[in-house]
Amino acid sequence: MGAAIDLIAIAMHDGGPVMWPIALCSLLVVFVTLRKALQWIYYRFTVRSGTAGWEATVETLRAEGAEAAEKRATKEVSPYAAVLVAAMRRKEEPFGEALEVEARALTRRLARGLGVLDTIVTLAPMLGILGTVTGIIGSFSALGTMGTDNPTAVAGGIAEALYTTAAGLIVSICALIPLNVGRVCHKALVRDLETAMTDVERAAGIAQ
């Protein structure tokens, strides 16, 4: 652990100023990944734990109508029930349209953060290339100023180029994995949500 910290400290020192935005990208990757993981685990847990209550709510909507279903849904923990209640409270809109609006709002909340990871996947290697260019420029500048008499100055620019390139690629790879996993999870969540909302629309059609 101590060796890893020492290596990071050396990379930050020798990698030049471009290492700071790359480090910020790495922190964002960690924060967004943990946040999305907790969000999806909570969503999946509430869906599964509220399955029986959700099915009873849909059956209530089918048998007794919207008012009774809304009263029951307010007592449920399922996020589907929250969508149903929010849609029923949009009295000025047709129920089907309100349900679609609320379902899309939930979908957007579940997708929030994936765009950040997608941006970092592209941005981090570009920052690494930028650091490579600035490091090489620094090496040639030192070479032109001091000639070959001071190889240490030239080596500093090369080290900057290598550190930023490696750091940018590592951050990009670390962001790519949770991004792809997140996209797969998001598609599954959206598919389940669409199925649940279809059941509601059918039950509402029967109730009406």
If you average the pLDDT, what whole number results? 86
As a percent range, the share of strand residues is under 5%
Give the helix/strand class: mainly alpha
Order of helices and strands: HHHHHHHH
Estimate the helix proportion, in percent: over 70%
Number of strands: 0
Provide the number of structural domains: 1
The DSSP helix count reads 8
Strand count, sense and closure of the main sheet? none
Q: Which consecutive residue ranges, at least 5 long each, have pLDDT under 50?
A: none
Instruction: Give the assembly state of these chains.
Output: single chain
Rg, Cα atoms, Å: 26 Å
N-to-C span: 64 Å
Shape by Cα distribution: rod-shaped
Structure description:
- The chain has helices at residues 2-14, 19-49, 51-64, 66-73, 79-88, 95-111, 114-146, 151-207.
- It is rod-shaped.
- It contains eight helices and no strands.
- Helix 2 runs antiparallel to helix 7 (114-146).
- It has one domain (18-207).
- It has 208 residues and is mainly α.
- The longest helix is centred in the last third of the chain and has 57 residues, at 151-207.
- The mean pLDDT is 86.
